[in-house]
Design a protein that fits this description.
The complex is a heterodimer. By secondary structure, chain A is an alpha+beta fold. Chain A folds into 6 domains: 2-39 and 158-185, Phenylalanyl-tRNA Synthetase, Chain B, domain 1; 45-155, OB fold (Dihydrolipoamide Acetyltransferase, E2P), CATH 2.40.50; 207-398, Phenylalanyl-trna Synthetase, Chain B, domain 3 (Phenylalanyl-tRNA Synthetase, Chain B, domain 3, 3-Layer(bba) Sandwich); 405-469, 2-Layer Sandwich (Phenylalanyl-tRNA Synthetase, Chain B, domain 1), CATH 3.30.56.10; 493-693, BirA Bifunctional Protein, domain 2; 710-798, 2-Layer Sandwich (Alpha-Beta Plaits), CATH 3.30.70.380. Chain A is built from 20 helices and 40 strands. By secondary structure, chain B is an alpha+beta fold. Helices cover 40% and strands 19% of the residues of chain B. The longest helix of chain B has 30 residues, at 54-83. The chains are: A alpha+beta, B alpha+beta. At the A-B interface, helix 6, helix 9, helix 11, helix 12 and strand 28 of A face helix 5, strand 1, strand 4, strand 5 and helix 8 of B.
């Protein structure tokens, strides 16, 4: 909401400058969002009369003028404006005047313009910050006394934009803000005197409230013989000072009172009301109304309307009807000041997409008592500005004044909550300055009655906030941080995830982050899922982003493709994030997944042969093995799998402690179709819970031997189908004493071997004893036995 | 001078030259074999010693011993020289060629800030709690004292599912879940992903990250909240940063405040980052509303506490001066590798 400093100053004396005022407002919870000063004419600009105008000897468009500013010799001023004619009375900035512009300060100095001396500057409205008019000099009233400071003719104003929190609808008016400013500046707030002529003309049937649940109070009055026309200057200026447009005197008064007191008002043209009366009732199903903004709305009984004897004339509290408002022809006015149910106004406004300054206030809640004051104020101002006479009694149909909240307040409790030593007297003082009623003050506490404009005050905690706010949050002391240990780090659910992520990063991968909402194609790129597994949003932002990701693959593919299209070809990425699924047999609703992607060159910073190395299947397998090593995951294996995400024969399932942990492999060709890269892409997707469940921490220390080791190499031709794991298993199962390690050091296949479906493999076996040095003879005998068993049992041809 | 001494002198000259030129240990070994080895020169000369005249024997013997020692010295010196790295063979090193880089990983900036916040609050005795991202209305709104017709519940602002549940709009439901399942005192922080129905732009996303704190105990006051936020600010931005609390409104706290840090760019003097105010709005906080305590079965007459929250994207964007939130979700590696 916008407030005007000058307008505010009508109700409370403001004896501080704008920055101080804004700071106090912000620190009291009325957050100042923007400040705009307009019409601030600098000191030094005075009224002057142009005595003479001569053309500039050296310029086509400039003139040389002599200007009388009421004191001393007339000044010679060079001027470029077209209208600097002799006789005009204009603003003159004298030597030394400083203009404050957004570009910086600008001082008027004695100067020469194309060789002619100039002793000041005559100004346009724009130069004085009074309007955007820069077509020529501002022409002032010729009856003004020469030398009068122009700033006194155009006192400046400042528009302050404030953010009003939803709990404080009472701040949505000048008077409401003035009440708090009064407390902040310790200066009394006073409403202008409101006087209304007495009128007891009965008006039976003028107002009927058929829906008292939606309309708590309706005050209606008739004013006859008004002269609708332009508003007086003061009224126009007030409205313009906060960015409102003047319409006519009657409508302007209703808007003025709305802004002054926060009570929405509506003026109907009485002649346009069938039966000359209003009914606050629920709309009939299908009933239609055309509102002021030209929209035709179809209504239902959940909407409240103000109708005449026949048709709806206004959407209650939201907007007037197009045909019942005050126009230049209007002579008789029915003035409405009402209280409606906030939630109903809010839902109507939302549903019908129609809102106004009135609905904004009604949906937050207006002051029951103010409805009457505002009605009087509007009558006063209409009579004052549009003439006419009050022609009815004050018809006030209501379902009773709501009870005021009575809140017991314990001073110790207030102090304990805000952690600040505020004295009892100060607490009471704050309440009173905020226009709250305080009774039964004792050493221990008091009883506070909240006025009806403070609907937010219900409990002691609400009172504590008032004390904290007005006493100042700056005075809350800074004390040492204290706090009990309320749990063990073992309960810390983040720690294990954080550790896992740090481990993945330590392997050299870049962490990515994607949105949780994805389009259905991205979701189904993870081919483990079908459409029925996806969790759909009822109200997605767009149909493109309508489901929650069931896996991290889809968006990771997007990131890979985006990077590749930007020629970032060497990628080693991962993400850990929540994924969602509707099919409990796949996984229960929400879980964490780890997705890793590799593609491109292994050593792009190197050259020659090294530069040509690309990431391959074994790089990704190695990443997983290293991760498991870091995480102390021991019992895992990789088994071949057919999976539509991966190329056939280039994929593996990961089994950890007998549980399926996920899969990895080379991406299926159609998932990367069209990508501008020649490098294969490798992806892994793992269930984080399975990894975390298998982290058992480090085992016990295992002693190692300090005696020398002896190694023997064995090479053989093996059938193509014999895997490395089978050979290692066989060697392990042979249980050779002192066999410390088995190291594969060569796998070789040439054309001849390929035809024979064989491969050449070579292993180094290392023997070592914990207590002594092994002799050659011992090692040789074990090794020879093993060679014999290899040949016999694994059907390999020793070399 | 006899022929033996001549041979010794000649051998010494040869070895001096060879030893100076050797580039590997094998060549040194060859020298040893050739001169001192079993079939080398010196054992051969030793056999010739028998033919030396008695007058010359003493002088020859001395030359023989001196020569053998000298050669051993030369061999030792050559080995020492090789061991110190001199004379290595192979191509010369071009120090300007690129090294073989070890793989370095990169943490996402959002994670960096989340981890940092978590670390700071852990030091102050908070432990981390988490909750589901698909949340029910009770935990996300009702229990947090959000009025039935509060705009934040509107499908305009919140993502709904067909079963009436939602994507959580804040990390605050974690507070409720923790208080439901724990007796006070409670001291937790909850980092996590939250969702708002905002069209992505430079400062908004459909999802973003928050970290939320909650402390419930006997006698907790606004001063405790201020001290924790002040300590957090100092840990995050250094000893000179100040904090400021401003009154505000949230349904789940009373009193409610927003808190600002003095601008980390200009130190509070005013600059474009703080829009010349000297302060940067960080987030919201307050004393937990008695209604919230009642909703989880805590007696507000006995227990009080504070809650605070902040947006992690905002902290990251401030820290690294990232101008557009969307960069955080685009995952261009040229972005990721900067952190």
């Amino acid at each position: 909401m916008d407030i005007s400093r000058n307008w505010l100053a009508q109700y409370v004396a403001i004896d501080c400058d704008i920055p101080t005022l804004c700071d106090k407002l912000t620190m009291a919870g009325i957050e100042v969002e923007a400040v705009e000063s307009a019409g601030t004419v600098p000191t030094g600009v005075v009224v002057g009369r142009i005595l003479e105008r001569r053309p500039h000897p050296d310029s086509d468009h400039m003139s040389v003028c002599r200007v009388d500013i009421g004191a001393g010799e007339p000044l010679q001023i060079v001027c470029g404006a077209p209208n600097c004619d002799a006789g005009c009375v204009v603003p003159v900035a004298t030597i030394g005047t400083v203009f404050h512009t957004p570009e910086g300060d600008f001082k008027i100095k004695k100067s020469k313009l194309r060789g002619v001396e100039s002793m000041g500057m005559m100004c346009s409205e724009k130069e004085l910050g009074l309007s955007d008019n820069h077509e020529g000099l501002m022409i002032l009233d010729s009856s003004l006394k020469l030398g009068t400071p122009v700033e006194s003719l155009f006192p400046g104003d400042t528009r302050i934009e404030i953010e009003v929190t939803p709990n404080r609808p009472d701040w949505l008016s000048m008077w409401g803000v003035a009440r708090d400013v009064s407390c902040l500046l310790d200066s009394p707030a006073k409403l202008p005197e409101i006087t209304v002529p007495e009128c007891h003309i009965p008006a039976p049937g003028l107002v009927t409230v058929e829906a008292p649940d939606l309309c708590r109070r309706y005050i209606g009055r008739v004013i006859r013989n008004v002269k609708v026309g332009p508003s007086p200057k003061w009224l126009r200026e007030r409205l313009e000072s906060i960015g409102l447009r003047s319409i006519n005197n009657v409508v302007d008064v209703t808007n003025f009172v709305l802004m002054e007191l926060g009570q929405p008002l509506h003026a109907f043209d009485l002649d346009k009301l069938e039966g000359g009366r209003v009914v606050a009732r629920r709309a009939r199903s299908g009933e239609r109304i055309t509102t002021l903004d030209g929209k035709t709305l179809s209504l239902e009984p959940r909407h409240l309307v103000i109708a005449d004897a026949v048709r709806p004339m206004a959407l209650a509290g939201v907007m007037g009807g197009e045909f019942s408002g005050v126009t230049d022809e209007t002579t008789d006015v029915l003035l409405e000041s009402a209280v409606f149910l906030p939630s109903n106004i809010r839902s109507t406004s939302r549903e019908l997409g129609s809102s106004s300054d009135s609905s904004y206030r009604y949906e937050r809640g207006v002051d029951y008592d103010m409805a009457s004051v505002a009605s009087d104020r509007a009558v006063q101002l209409i009579l004052e500005t549009a003439g006419g006479e009050l022609a009815s009694e004050k018809v006030d149909v209501n379902s009773g004044r709501p009870a005021e909240k009575v809140i017991p307040c314990r001073f110790d409790r207030i102090r304990a909550l805000i952690g600040t030593a505020v004295e009892n007297g100060r607490i009471v003082d704050i309440f009173r300055k905020l226009h709250l009623t305080v009774d039964d003050v004792t050493e221990k506490g008091c009883v506070v009655t909240a006025p009806l404009f403070r609907l937010d005050l219900e409990r002691e905690a609400d009172l504590a906030e008032e004390v904290a706010r007005i006493n100042g949050l700056d005075s809350v002391p800074a004390i040492p941080v204290t706090g009990k240990m309320c749990g063990s780090i073992r309960d810390d659910s983040y720690l294990r995830l954080q550790t896992l992520r740090d481990r993945v990063i330590s392997l050299g991968l870049y962490e990515c982050m994607h949105y949780s909402m994805v389009n259905i194609n991205s979701a189904l790129a993870d081919r483990r899922f079908v459409k029925e597994d996806l969790i759909e949003l009822s109200n997605p932002l767009s149909l493109e982003l309508a489901v929650l990701r069931p896996g991290l693959l889809g968006e990771m593919l997007g990131t890979l493709e985006r990077n590749i299209s930007r020629r970032n070809l060497n990628l080693r990425l991962f993400e850990i994030g929540k994924v969602f699924c509707r099919a409990p047999e796949k996984f229960p609703e929400e879980r964490y997944e780890l997705c890793i992607a590799l593609s491109g060159l292994r050593q792009p910073e190197r050259f020659s042969a090294e530069l040509k190395q690309e990431y391959d299947f074994y790089d990704l397998k190695g990443v997983l093995e290293s991760l498991f090593e870091l995480a102390n995951v021991k019992r895992y294996k990789f088994t071949p799998v057919e999976d539509a995400r991966f190329r056939r024969g280039r994929a593996a399932e990961v089994i950890i402690e007998g549980r399926k942990a996920g899969a990895f492999g080379e991406l299926a060709a159609d998932l990367s179709a069209g990508w501008r890269t020649t490098h294969p892409v490798f992806v892994a997707q793992l269930d984080v819970d399975v990894i975390l469940a298998a982290e058992h921490g480090c085992g016990y220390y295992v002693p190692f031997s300090l005696f020398p080791a002896t190694s023997r190499d064995v090479a053989f031709l093996a059938p193509e189908s014999l895997t490395h794991a089978e050979i290692v298993d066989f060697l392990r199962r042979a249980k050779l004493p002192d066999l410390e390690s088995v190291q594969l050091f060569d796998v070789f296949v040439d054309d001849k071997l390929r035809q024979e479906h064989r491969k050449s493999m070579a292993y180094q076996l290392t023997f070592r004893n914990v207590e002594r040095t092994l002799t050659d003879a011992e090692v040789n005998s074990r090794f020879e036995k093993l060679r014999a068993r290899l040949a016999a049992e694994l059907k390999v041809e020793l070399r | 001078m006899n022929t033996i001494i001549e041979k010794i002198n000649q051998a010494l000259a040869e070895v001096e030259a060879k030893a100076a030129a050797v580039v590997d240990a094998a060549a040194v070994e060859q020298i040893r074999i050739d001169y001192l080895g079993r079939n080398g020169l010196f054992p051969a000369l030793s056999k010739e010693m028998g033919g030396v005249t008695p007058e010359e024997r003493r002088e020859t013997g001395r030359a023989f011993n001196a020569g053998r020692s000298r050669i051993q010295e030369l061999i030792d010196a050559a080995l020492a020289r090789l061991a110190s790295g001199d004379g290595a063979k192979g191509e010369a090193i071009d120090l300007t060629l690129p090294g073989r880089r070890w793989k370095t990983g990169h943490k996402h900036p959002i994670t960096i800030l989340a981890d940092e916040c978590v670390a700071i609050f852990r030091r102050m005795g908070f432990i981390v709690a988490e909750g589901p991202e698909i949340e029910d209305i009770f935990h996300n709104f009702d229990a947090l004292n959000t009025p039935q017709d509060h705009p934040s519940r509107d499908p305009q602002d919140t993502f709904y599912f067909a079963d009436g549940r939602i994507l959580r709009t804040q990390t605050s439901p974690v507070q409720i879940r923790v208080m439901e399942s724990h007796e006070p005192p409670v001291r937790i922080v909850a980092p996590g992903r939250v969702f708002r129905r905002d069209t992505p732009d430079a400062t908004h996303g459909m999802n973003f990250h928050q970290i939320e704190g909650l402390y419930i105990d006997k006698g907790v006051s606004l001063a405790d909240l201020k001290s924790v936020l002040q300590a957090f600010a100092i840990e995050m931005y250094g000893p000179r940063v100040k904090i400021r609390l401003r009154p505000h409104f949230f349904p789940f706290t009373e009193p409610s405040v927003e808190y600002d840090f003095s601008c980390i760019m200009c130190g509070g003097k005013g600059c474009p980052v703080c829009k010349h105010s000297g302060w940067i709005e960080i987030a919201g906080a307050g004393m937990v509303d008695p209604a919230v305590l009642k909703n989880v079965g805590y007696d507000p007459e006995i227990w009080s506490g504070y809650a605070f929250g902040m947006g992690i994207e905002r902290l990251a964007m401030l820290r690294y001066r990232i101008p557009d939130l969307r960069l955080l979700y685009e995952n261009d590696v040229r972005f990721l590798e900067q952190f």
